[in-house]
């Protein structure tokens, strides 16, 4: 009987029982933490020797193929994003109505436009084209209140002006009107 027949592990030619990997034809990978080789005598470190005459020079460092490949994709395939669309394209009507009604507190006249846009916005809500019904209702309430207050204020100003003209105008003005003129 030969020594190979007695050795239970055919990959271990020494017969010691220790695992010995099969030799492969590939070279071992280079150690990424190893120091670079020293420059040959007479050259500065980090420079490459000139190419032999008649050959093409190597590309400059930093150019060429990337060192690492892109990572493989995992999971489901990626699809393009859906186009951005507004789910309710007419929400701007109620928002505009609210802004114009609130601006009517300062200007007075924009409350009418706020009421108009509030009605248009509520119609869009009924058709399912908008979802901000509360803002449209607020635009209508504020707008109508400001319109009513504007009408009452206009009537009060006209009534006061009529009373003032009646008291201070004509042939027999009130005594307090004449006292204003004498001062």
TrEMBL record:
Q: Which Pfam families match?
A: DUF4190
Keywords from the UniProt entry: Membrane, Transmembrane, Transmembrane helix
Where is composition skewed (Polar residues) in this entry? Answer: 1-14
| Coiled-coil spans in chain | none
Q: Where is the composition biased (Pro residues)?
A: 47-63
Domain spans labelled DUF4190: 96-153
Record field: transmembrane: 98-125, 137-165
- In this chain, the stretch annotated as Disordered covers 1-68
Q: Write down what this protein is called.
A: DUF4190 domain-containing protein
Tell me which species this is from.
Answer: Demequina lignilytica
